Amino acid sequence: MKFNKIALYVAAVLSFGGASCSDYLDKEVDLTLQADNVFSDFDRTRGFLAKMYDNCLPDAFRGYSDTQFRLSGDCMTDNAVDYWGVARYHSVMADAYDATNHWFANDYWTSRYAAIRSCNQFLTNARPDVIGNAEKPGDDNRLYDRMIAEAHMLRAIMHFDLICWFGDTPMVTDDENGAPIILTPSSVIPERMPAADALKWIADECDKYKDALPFRYASENENWGRVNGAAAYALKARALLYRASPLHNPGNDQARWTEAANAALDFINANNRQSNPYRLYTTPDNDPSKNYYQCFTTNPSHNNEYILSRSTWNTLNLVFFNAPCGFTGAISATGYLNPTQNLVDAYETANGLPIDQDPSYDEQNPYVNRDPRLTQTIIHHGMIWGVGSEARPVDVNNDEGRVGADYARGNGGTATGYYSMKYTHNIPWDGTVNSVQVACPIFRYAEILLNAAEALNEAGRTSEAYDYVDQVRARVNMPSLRSRGLDQSALRERIRNERRIELCFEDHRFFDERRWKLFDENRNAAAESSLPRYRQVFTLYGVEVRENTNTTFNYGTSRVDGRRTFNSPKNYFFPIPYDEVRKAGIVQNPGWEL
Fold first, then answer.
1. Boundary (domain end) residue, out of 392, 420, 441
2. Sorted alphabetically, which Gene3D superfamilies does this protein's record hold (predicted)?
3. Is the peptide bond before 569 cis (omega within 30 degrees of 0)?
4. Do 510 and 372 belong to one domain?
5. Residue of 296, 225, 230 whose CA lies nearest to 264
6. Quick one: CA dihedral 517, 522, 525, 528, positive or negative?
């Protein structure tokens, strides 16, 4: 076995060795003497923590900066496909990889354990005499305690991420004496902890450290993107919701659903006690036709709905890869991210009914009288896009003799008839705009409300669940579900659907499909063929628009990844990288054994 030595060094921003690990087990023997130089200095200690944030926080936009990822992780779900032919997402959709050669498995495993190691280095070496721990007014009160709590929460977030991707997980936390574990060549690798137990550990960590953090920072300009007490409440609520879900709770232990419901309600109650609480974003005039879209495009770092996010990103990447491919000039769109018809059909009618249950819905006039979030999330045929003189109807026509400007071109197009509007700023294409601000939430208030609704309903408290899902719907003026008088089973489907459309392209759907075990419910493409498109998970649909004479909408499978391959239980988790299984004797996930 070989071991790579990791050096700590300080540059303009301190870098730490975790990022250079080749794999989980390739660790240095111990921190070098350079650690004294780092942790004996306040600015360097603070820089180390700042670099931990860069490496620890999940990033739903990461694919937009990688030439082989390209786009949103929803391209591994029934929400979207990736037009880019060499994108790595396709291998997940086709189950066309193994434990020796998959980028995501190696990358997610390696990067998360490297980040955990850095957290443990900080927890071991950070010094109260250097940082200071005095009682102060404002955000820096008992600063050492706060920074230690931040590191614990970052470590918990990384373990949560590992559980989501890999299930049962070796937990590199504290030894029997409470000291953070920093693995060495002689270390015994922890056995994989059952996912349900690991998720409970995460919830307990949140309870331990949430009160050492301000619930919300007084100076968010200075502390934007920093873990706060609200993020600890939110992580606990999400961890316990996952723990209660069918994937990790096959016996449907009702106590777990109650625990998850109480965690979400704890957030809401704590938030209600704040002088500046988190709340659903609305425009100044509370316009339901704009509230949702502008939540993700207007001043994301001053958004009262965002509980935790990575730092804002000044870029045009999302515009390039999301906007319709026919918009071109000094800069050009490619439109690689294509929402599916499955997702489009999930948006209810304005009457508050699924489209297959509302006689007013017309498949040949499909975008009229729908949930306002549809036209704030999905760019469709006939929608006006562009600015000023460039504004025109989107054209994805594909009739004989005429292909619309936005259907396909040399460097992009749509495989489904749709493009993504979420996070996509409508800018001029003359090159006068160099960047826009985007930020993808890790936790936002709408998720907390939906977590509460789901857990309460599953815990048998259906009458209470309505209050929280209806708050999310009210922002866009959608009818209350309470008036429908739904039973637990029917409300379950509506809450799941609400979560799908409200949280799309935020890296939730991949895990929601799995924790609900939707693939076992549907079994295969043939078994689900009689279901409406929005309830199918194996077959992905799009629309072909024909308008040489009369405009018609023809629905069929997507031209890219039209069929998904999902083998159960194998594809509920990624494989542990083969090198780790071979060197450390870690038991591989079922179905991935070589």
1. 441
2. 1.25.40.390
3. yes
4. no
5. 230
6. negative
Q: Is residue 300 domain-shared with residue 436, that is, in the same domain?
A: yes
Of 414, 441, 468, the residue at which a domain comes to its end is 441
What does the block give as tokens for 471? Answer: 């708050």
Residue 146 is which amino acid?
A: R
Residue 286 lies in a domain: no
Residue 580 lies in a domain: no
Is there a domain that residue 87 lies in? Answer: no
Q: Which of 482, 441, 465, 255 is nearest to 352 (CA)?
A: 482
Helices 143-166 and 229-244, packing angle to 10 deg: 20
What distance in Å separates the CA atoms of residue 132 and residue 423, rounded to the nearest whole number? 40
- Say if residues 290 and 476 touch (Cβ distance below 8 Å): no
Report the CATH number that the domain containing residue 154 is assigned in CATH: 1.25.40.390
- Whole-angstrom Cα distance, residue 481 to residue 476? 14
Instruction: Give the residue numbers spanning the domain of 151.
Output: 17-71+104-277
What angle (nearest 5°) sits at the alpha carbon of residue 158, between those of residues 156 and 160? 70
Task: Report the C-alpha gap between 361 and 369 in whole angstroms.
Answer: 8
DSSP β-ladder status, 169-170 and 441-444: unpaired
- Residue 261 token pair: 């419901």
Q: What is the pLDDT of residues 3-54, one digit of tens each?
A: 222 222 222 233 333 333 333 333 333 344 478 889 999 999 999 999 999 8
- 85, two tokens: 């032919």
- Contact predicate 280/401, CB 8 Å: no
CA 101 → CA 62, 106, 405, 569, distances in Å? 20, 8, 38, 20
* Cα 60 from chain centroid (whole Å): 5
Residue 310's nearest CA partner among 12, 45, 56, 11 is 56
pLDDT, one tens digit per residue, over 186-209 is 777 889 999 999 999 999 999 999
Are 64 and 163 in a shared domain?
yes
pLDDT value at 178 more than 60:
yes
Total domain count for the chain? 3
Count of residues for the chain? Answer: 594
Closest CA to 447 of 212, 194, 214, 271: 271
CA distances from 93 to 63, 149, 502, 563, 567 (A): 16, 38, 23, 8, 11
Rounded to whole angstroms, the Cα distance separating 71 from 63 reads 5
For residues 328 and 476, membership in a common domain is answered with: no
What is the distance, to the nearest Å, from the Cα of residue 483 to the centroid of all Cα atoms in its chain? 31
Provide the β-strand partners of residue 554. Answer: 544
The per-residue b/e assignment along 120-144, b for 16 or more CB within 10 angstroms, e otherwise, is bbbbebbeeebbebeeeeebbebbb
Q: How far apart are CA 541 and CA 72, in angstroms?
A: 18
If one compares 411 and 99, the residue with the highest pLDDT of the two is 99
Q: How many CB atoms lie within 10 A of CB 563?
A: 12
DSSP summary character for residue 370? B
